[in-house]
Each structure stands twice: as structure tokens, then as C-alpha cells.
Amino acid sequence: MAKNIFVFVEYKDRSIRKVSLELLSKGRELAEKDGSTVYAGVIGFHIKEIAETVKSYADRVIVVDNENLSNYRCDTYASVLEQILKKYQSSFVFGGSTVTGKDLFPRLAARLNAPIISDAVGIDFDGNRLRVKKPLYGGKVMSLLTFKDGVSPLITFRPNSFAVEKLSLNGEIIEENIDIAKDPKFVILNTDRGGAQKVDLQEADFIICGGRGMKGPENFQFLEEIADVMGGRVGASRAVVDSKWREYDDQVGKSGKTVSPKLYIGCGVSGALHHTMGMDTSKVIVAVNKDPNAPIFNYADYGIVDDLFNVLPILKEELIKSKQEI
Amino acid sequence: MNIIVFVKQVADTEARIMIKSDKKSLEIENKFNMNFFDEFAMEAAIKTKEKFKDTKVTACTYGPKRSIEALRTAIAMGADQAFLIDNTGFESEDSLIVAKILSAFARKEGFDLILCGRQAIDDENANVGVMVAEMLGIPHASAIVGFEVTDGKTVKIENEIEGGKETVEVQLPALFTTQKGLNTPRVPLITGVMKAMKAVIPTVDPTTLGLSKEEIDRNASGIEIISLEPPQQRPPVKIIEGETPEEKVRNLVKALKEEAKVL
Amino acid sequence: MNFALSEEQEFFKKTIADTVDKMIVPKAQEIDEKDEFPWDLWKEFTGLGYIGLRYPEEIGGMNADKVMCMTFYEEIARGSVGFAQSVIMNILMGTYFIFRFGSDAIKERCLYPAMRGEKVATMCFTEDQSGSDLGATRTTVVKDGDGWRINGTKMWITNGPICDFCTVLATTDPSRGLKALNFFLVEKGTPGFSSGQVLNKLGCRGTVTGELVFDNVWVPNENLLGEELGKGVIYVGEILDEVRLMTGAMALGIARGAYAEAMEFAKKRIAFGQPIGNFQLIREKFAEMDTLMNAARLMVYYGAWLLENGMDSRIIAAEAKMYATEVCLKVVDELTRIYGANAFAYEYSPQRYFRDARFLLYGGGTHEVLRDFIGRSLIGKL
Q1: I need a surface site. Which of A61, A295, C7, C69 has the fewest CB within 10 A?
Q2: Could you report the predicted ipTM of this complex, rounded to two decimals?
């Protein structure tokens, strides 16, 4: 019996968010194994354009276009999805484990009395059943989960879990008119998007750290620019802070702050234990250092042995390019 | 005002965690704490109690007997009373089941406001709080970073949304899940510690909340554990190849994108 | 035999450990580096009310049992030894005799504010020439009208230079040694009472230790802390076991802190292509440290249990203090060995544990004197 996979699509400005493209790609991969249909759900206001892009990635695109849906609200979106799913019975509902996903999916799951697996990082089909990979205890344990027969679960996935496949399907766009009512008890007074705030070092997803190899405070400008591109923070080694090139607030290390970003890049950081003890739980560590014997390469996943002043300008360009593809 | 704070006792981030030989259960070193995000919820509740004198704060958790310690911490911080809903014999971590139990408790106890941590640091699901709101049919906001009870009937909150923040006025009864930055959780005073040490914390049998055994035990969950695995070790460093710095950087960014999946 | 802590004691232990982790541990290095009394932290921490730990609930205290007291001393020493010394002075030695013998007026002026952290207390026994040898005390006290006149100099007084009041040990007759000792309360502002040299110490930095000078200091009769004259030594005996066990508990705390640092390093430091914790000789160090720490822990808490239950704890207290200290010195030594050259840098913490631990050798009694005391107690007078 065919299983339908429903993907809740998120978008930013006028482009589909990368995580949604990842899920559509993955959904396609799973669907091809047993002839399932991939549905994409696009909800909002004036979203025809987005629906047109989404149709390359799905068999059917369910569109609900209504002024009351112009901005995300849990009450309206959950209600719309509930009604869509009632009509288009799906075996699985996928969503991103994003700020929106974390707010919407549990509410929807409870409404549908459906089991939910949140913040998953992988899913595959082992011939018999679906297996979902979900980290526990901050990644210290990886759980492999599956579902009982007859159950239609919701699953949210962490961004960057899957590759985006360039699909060129020709999905059918179906517009649905659904009644939407806002909960009068929930009144949005003000929405504030943007305004660059200095990300807390310990909360940053991206940290680019400079060490002695930066040669002087003026060169940290390069790092600031990269941090801006990535929406992250600039860090500093203790040597740099002691030399007063950077503030103590930037210090990464045992006597500074312990950080655990998704991506850490150390430039001209030798990797003294003092420093590495403060960042070695980062998800991915990259080191850029002229010295191939620098201890930081013992702790890094990737390394570039080269003069950081040659590397940094190009790194900035390449990161800008890759950001634009999101 | 009646405030319920749902808390969870979780393993300390430094606790040793070992996968048992059956690969389906864990052995956790005996180091537990109140979940980090729940502290913000407790602090918000106590601050409200300090502002509006006629307020009762009830802390509650669904967990094993040892979770009583987390409830004592809640009392030390200022909760008036606490209840342990004992999960011995059921031990299901399924969000749907936990939410059913907690909402049954809330219905029985009565409430104007419910506060919980945004997510538990052990499973990082961020489900239970929002699910409870749905089951109780009340509005919710998740990941609040600002909280102000304007009067006994309305609350003004600020919460994180995609790419920013939103200010919302919500009518009680409502539920909010708390995010870091909401407040600075207080360190208990010795008077609180003493009160907590002496506190009598009743244990509640979940089946007395109007739920049947079948509804709440492990078999009621639609999710099954296939196995629990250790994480992959960090392999030795990959030095990026390239003739020129340009080539190296391009190869690096490609690897970060496709292999490491952090871009 | 029940070795378990009660649920209440476990909760207390957990709460104080968390409080120390949140409030004190992050500041420990700075306190040591600056070597200035951390007034902000003092205010914040004493505001929680723990100074009343040992005193009755009726006066705002916690009436904690001895096991909980030891738990407290252990945890706070784990956080910052210097800060711990100052806090414990207010909790125990600096306020005990006032609690025990002070008039209501004195308690209002000194004890209760000290319990709130509003006043800093201390106890002055040691002099330049008398540490273990209390009989050699040369600070004299002479009856003078409605009061007493005190003359002398005290040395090595924790909190001395910043104290608001102190309990000073003075003799009515130096020739009678231990039989003529008494305690007196002297408050800041009393003419002739001043602080002298501030010591630059190897460890326990951040706490202010120094000289106190009593130059013809006159105090009224009610400032005699005691029911009779000449009973100073007997009164000291009331808290001596607790002071020794407390020192042992501090040793446990320092050892635990050092052990944790060593563990983290052993897991992370890579040499010869792997974490050094994989090497047998490093593993042996941990086995040894854990064994010794467990033994020391049992002694200290056994002593606390005896004390709490009104049983004779004199020998155990002395033994526990000695043993826990020796264990702590071994653990901090191993920490510096495990850290290798890094232990030699002020940048890392091992040097601080190493320096701080040295005070344990004389705090609560030197081991030479203690050994003699224990031997004498065991063999008896022949």
C-alpha cells in the first residue's frame, strides 16, 4: 500500500528554506522506494511564486493562500494543516526542527493524536521498515527509532541533515480554500525581524577564532566580516586577549568561555590545550595554520595548511556564495 | 493566581552515560539536576508570586522516584507545593503520553497559568509543553524571552520567532515554554533549602488522573526503539588539498557543505 | 551500618554543590590572581543565609547537623579555598564564642549581623611565637575597673585586617600557661585595636590574613566570653574536633576539585597519538587517587557522625584531618604531574590547587603535634 509523505514547506522572503528542500529531496528518495506520493504543503499569503518553485520538488503541492496566513501563527497554521491532512491522508508528515517547526509540530501532533519524533538527523528504509536516527544527551547517544504499524507519525529534522537534490518534477498545484480563524486570546502586538544583535559567544552556531597568527588587532576585521556573513561571532585565544587585541568577552578557552558551535574555524590558533579544552565539543572544527605541526590539527576535522592572510579573503567570498544558495 | 510549573529531572551534562548490552536502555551515572530550561520557568513563576501576593505555585513532574529531588529544588526556589507523578512501571518517554498525563494533572489541580522549560536537555524534543497546551485547549507561546503578567487575566510575552522576536498579549489561561534569556534563575536561599528539605511531596499514581494503564504504558507509544548506538568518533584531521589557496578554500567549503553538512 | 545520606542531606549536598558551581567556581581564578577580598561575591553569597548554618533556627540559622556542615565545608573549599576560609571563619570560629557566651546586646551587635554577612568576624589565637603551643600565648589581659585591658599582637589571623570584631585569646598570667587563657570580644573602632601587616601568602589568596595589634585595648566586663576565668582551653575544646574535621572536609573538597581537573586533562590531552588517559601509568594515578579519597572521605564523615551523635570524636577528628590532608597533598601533586609542563604555568589551575593545599598542613594543627597528641591519647600516661 502506498504511503504518502507530506512535507511542510517553510520559506524566507521569497525563497524556500534549505531545510525544506532537504526534506523534499529525502522524501522523494524514500517515495521512490515504494511508489509513495510526495506532497508539499505551502501556507501563507501571495505564495503562488513559491508554489511554482516547490512544484519541481513534489508530486503535489497543496497551497493555502489567505491574508490571515501572511505571518506564521500556531493557531491558524495548525488548523490549516489539520484540515489539509484530513483530506490528504499521509503516512508521514515531515518538517524542519526550526523555531517554527518546534512550535507548530507538537501542537499538530497532539491535535491529531499522532506520535512525533523531533530533531531527527537521519531517516532510511532498511527493506522492512523506516528507521529514524535521533540524537540524545547532546549527541552522546544516537537512537534508532521506528514506528508501529498503522501509525502516522510527524517527524521534524534538524537542518543540514540531508543533501538537496536538484529535482525537476512537475508537481500538480492544488489550491485549497480553508476557513481560518485567529484565536482572539492571542494578540500579536509587534513583530521585530532583523536588527543585527551580537550573538552570545556560547550560543553562536558559527565561531571564527583568531590567535597569535593574526599578527595584530587590525586584522581581526577579516574575521568580523566572515562572522557577519555567517551570522556568528568572532572569538579570540587567550594570547590575543592578554595582548589586548580583543576583549575578554571574546575569549574562548578554559579561562574564557567554553563554546560548542556547529562550525568553529581557528585561524592562526596554535591549539594550546587551554584553548582546545574550550572548544573541542564543537560539531565541526576547521583549522587554518601555516604550521603543519600545530597541535590544533589534532583536534580538527578539516585543516588548511597555508598562510591565513591568503586564505581569509577567499574564504569570505566562498562563504558568501554558499550562503546565497540557501 | 494558580501557576503550575512542569519540570523534568535530567542527567547532568557531565554524567557518564553508557549503553547497556541490550542496546535499548541506558545506564546513567547518579548525577541529576532540574532541567536547565525549567529553571527559567520556575524563576518566572516565583517572580510572579512576588508581584501578585495571592499566587500559588505548584511544581510537578512525571518521572521516577528520584525526580523528587528536582521538585525539592523547585520548592527551594519558592514553589508552594510539589507533586511527583510516579512513572514506576510505565516509564514511557513518549511525548504524547507524558503530555496526556501532565494535562490530566493540570485539569485536576486547576490552573490559570502553566510554565515549562522549552525543551529537556536530554531528548531536546521541545514537545511536551506545547502538547499540553493543545490538550488543555489553551493558547501557548514557545521559547519566551520576555514575560509580564499585566493583571490577573492577561500576560504580555516576548518570544523567539523565525529570524526575530514577537510581542504578544495572551489571555489566561495559557501555557508558555521558557527560553534562555528570560531571566536569571535564583540560587536558593538557605531558608528555601530548609523548607525544601522538610517538604512533604506527595506521590501521585497516574492512573488516578482519569487515565487507564493501557493508555499510558510503554506499549501505548507508537514509537519503538530499534537500538541505541554510541556516537561516531572524530576521525583524524583531513588536510584539504589544493595547489593554490583559492583551490584549498573551495575544496574546504565544498567539504563543509556536502560532507560535514554545516553550511 | 548505614552509609547513605538521608534524602534531606543528599538534597542539601546537591544544592550547595550547584550554588558553589554557579557562584564561586567561575570566580575562583580571578580571586586568586587579584588577591583582593571579593566583597561583591561575599555580599552575594552571604545573602543566601549559609553563615547561619550551625546556629539554631530560632535566631535565623539552619541548625544543620555535622554531616551537612562537613558537606558545606567540602563544597565551598572545592570552589575557592581563599573565599572558603573567610566564610567558614564567620560560620564557625569567628562567631562561636559569641553565640555561646555573648550577652544579648553583643549578639545583636555582632552575631546576627555576622550571620547576615554584614559584619566580618574572626578568631585570634596565633601569635608570632605561639601556634600549636597555646600555653606560650603572650597577649595579656589585666582587670581594669569595669573591664579588661588587653595588650599584645596576633598573627596569621584570617579576615583579621578586614574584621568588624574578633574573639581574642589572652592570658591573665603567662606563667600559668594553658590554665590562664580566656576569650574576649574586641570590636573594630575600639581605641588601640588596629590591624598591622597583611601577609602575602603562597596560597588561599583572596582572603586577607594578617596581624592584629592590641595596644592597651580596654573592653567592658561583658566582653569576657566565658563563664569563668582560665577556661579558654576547655572552651576551645568544644569546637576543636569540628575545626579539625572541617579542615579534613576542606581537604576533601580541594582534592575533588583537583581530581576533576586531572580527569578532564587526561581525557583531552593527546600525546603519542592518543589521550593520555589511555596509558597505564596515568590510569594508575587515578586508581590511587580515588582509593585514597574514598578512604579519607570515610574518615571525615565517620568523625562527623561521631561528633553529631555525641560520641568521642577526639582521636578520629585528628586522624581524619591528618589523613585527608595527606591525601589532598598527594592528589594535587598528581594533578601537577599529569599536567606536565603546563602545571608550571599560572595560566592553568593545577598551580593554584598545589599552592592552596599547603595551608592544610598547619590549619587545624600541624601533623607533628597531632601525631603526638594521637599517640599520647592511645597509649595513655605511663
Answers
A1: C7
A2: 0.92
CB atoms under 10 Å from CB of B209, counted, come to 19
Compute φ and ψ for C224, nearest 5 degrees. Answer: -75, 115
Nearest residue on chain A to C275, judged by CA atoms?
A: A298
Quick one: cell of B178?
Answer: 521558557
Residue range B2-220, CATH number:
3.40.50.620
Q: What DSSP character marks residue C107? A: I
Distance CA C205, CA C248 (A): 19
Contact flag C50-B69 (C-beta cutoff 8 Å)? no
CATH 3.30.530.20 correct for A4-175: no
What secondary structure letter does DSSP report for A129?
A: S
- CATH architecture assignment, domain A194-325: 3-Layer(aba) Sandwich (3.40)
Q: Which residues of B touch A99 (CB under 8 A)?
A: 143, 160-162
- Contact with chain B for residue C39, Cβ under 8 A: no
What is the pLDDT at residue A198?
A: 65
Domain boundaries, chain B: 2-220, 233-263
B199 touches chain A (CB under 8 A): no
Strand pairing report for A233-236 and B2-6: unpaired
Size of interface B-C (CB pairs under 8 A): 41
Cell of B63: 518521572
Provide CB contacts within 8 A for C109, sequence distance 6+: C165, C187
Best of B145, B234, B247, B262 to substitute, by most chain A Cβ atoms within 10 angstroms, is B262
Residues in A 185-244 with any Cβ partner in B closer than 8 A: 185-195, 203
The minimum CA-CA distance between A154 and chain B, rounded to whole Å, is 11
Within 88-147 of A, beta carbons closer than 8 Å to B belong to: 98-100, 102-103, 105-107, 109-111, 113-119, 131, 135-147
C-alpha cell at C239: 569546637
CATH topology identical between A4-175 and A194-325: yes
Nearest-Å Rg of the Cα atoms of chain C is 21
Q: How far is B39 from chain C (nearest CA, A)?
A: 13
DSSP state of A251: B
Q: How far is CA B132 from CA B46, B123, B138, in A?
A: 21, 17, 9
Cα A99 to chain centroid, rounded: 10
* Exposure of C5 in the CB half-sphere (CA atoms within 13 A): 19
Show the cell assigned to C243: 575545626
Q: Is C268 on the interface with B (CB under 8 A)?
A: no
pTM for this structure?
0.89
The predicted-structure confidence for A176-216, as pLDDT tens digits, reads as follows 999 888 999 999 999 987 655 667 787 788 999 999 999 99
> How do the pLDDT tens digits run along chain B, 263 residues long?
999 999 999 999 888 899 999 999 999 999 999 999 999 999 999 999 999 989 999 999 999 999 999 999 999 999 999 999 999 988 888 999 999 999 999 999 999 999 999 999 999 899 999 999 999 999 999 999 999 998 889 999 999 888 788 999 999 999 999 998 899 999 999 999 999 999 999 999 999 999 999 999 888 999 999 999 998 777 889 999 999 999 999 999 999 988 888 87
* Min distance A45 CA to chain C CA atoms (Å): 48
CA–CA distance, A207 with A227 (Å, rounded to integer): 7
> Could you report the average pLDDT of every consecutive run of 10 residues in chain C (382 residues)?
91 96 93 96 97 95 96 98 97 97 97 97 92 91 96 95 96 94 96 94 95 97 95 94 97 98 91 92 98 98 97 97 98 96 90 96 92 94 85
Break chain A into its structural domains and give their ranges: 4-175, 194-325
Residues 241-260 of A with CB under 8 A from B: none
